[in-house]
Write a structure and sequence with these properties.
The protein is an alpha/beta fold. The protein is built from nine helices and 13 strands. The strands form three sheets. A six-stranded mixed sheet has the order 6-13-11-9-7-8. A five-stranded parallel sheet has the order 3-2-1-4-5, with helices on both faces.
Length: 266
Amino acid sequence: MKNIGLIAGNNRFPFLVAEEIKRKGCSVVCIALKEEADIGLEKVCDKTYWLSMWKFQKIIDALKNENVKAVIMAGQVKHIKIYSAVNMDWRAVKVMRSLINKKADTILKTIAGEFEKDGMHLMPSHTYLKHLLAEKGLISGKKLSLNENEDVGFGYEIAKGISGFDIGQTVVVKDKSVLAVESVEGTDECIRRAHKLGGENSIVVKVAKPNQDFRFDVPVIGVNTVDTLKENKVRAMAIESGGTLILDKNEVIEKAEKAGVTILAI
């Protein structure tokens, strides 16, 4: 069987990728990043190596030893951990020193280049999950009012702007005012900050970057996202159709309906 490499971060994303790879008749060689990954991955992957994200040569060697020619990155790796990097191996040091900046795209494209040097093709993260991409329209909850729809449009333009600069992909707005812009803290913390500043009934807008490189950093929402929306009394969340994955969609819809949160794809 063909061996597919899986570089696994946190949350459900890598589990779903591993399950789909196996359904296609391939074996999953998982590099479970010690700083992020869930121990449960050992049950769904055919072979699992627990390695630090900063032991880059060991990651490459493990995949080469398993005759891996194609690799997928799935699951969040908190960008902020870049600033607390310790015990990097020589190859990680080389990569970090070569960067012109520490934007997410810059880092990940450089890492992708390193895989290619060793004969491994980095596939788009959603290669096996395209059936989970959001389709345009109402996903859960009540239709938005005219003013709320205008907030969605307002937020979409802002989100596309910041994502184009690789700052973040989410904004939270209310009454055509920006409450919070996502940066290295991630979507959930952005939503929490917006609630502290602007209270309930805000609108969250999450988009793909212009010319999104789907090999990494694919916009994703899931059950945890809905929990955050509920906790912070968000009125609605708009995501970009065709460019955002909805993990565990049925559960997402059920929880959002119970919470009275509208989710729509635009």
